[in-house]
Design a protein that fits this description.
The protein is built from two helices and two strands, in the order E-E-H-H. The chain is mainly alpha-helical.
Amino acid sequence: MSYTIAGRKVLNEHLALAIYGAVGLGTYAALSGPKKEVAKPVISGASDDESKFLQDFMAKLEAEDKDTAKH
């Protein structure tokens, strides 16, 4: 069976493939948007010593995380 679209004969198989392609293309376009950057939380302590300790501790954890991600 076929349909007449814009004065041309179009087979059912071609319509089905066009719909599958359109759905696939739409899904790809919806899922491949710009990547959102994760905001880092603000680290603050009650005193200067506490703030420095927290920043050093977080830097140490991030360095360890990068090391384990390589393996």
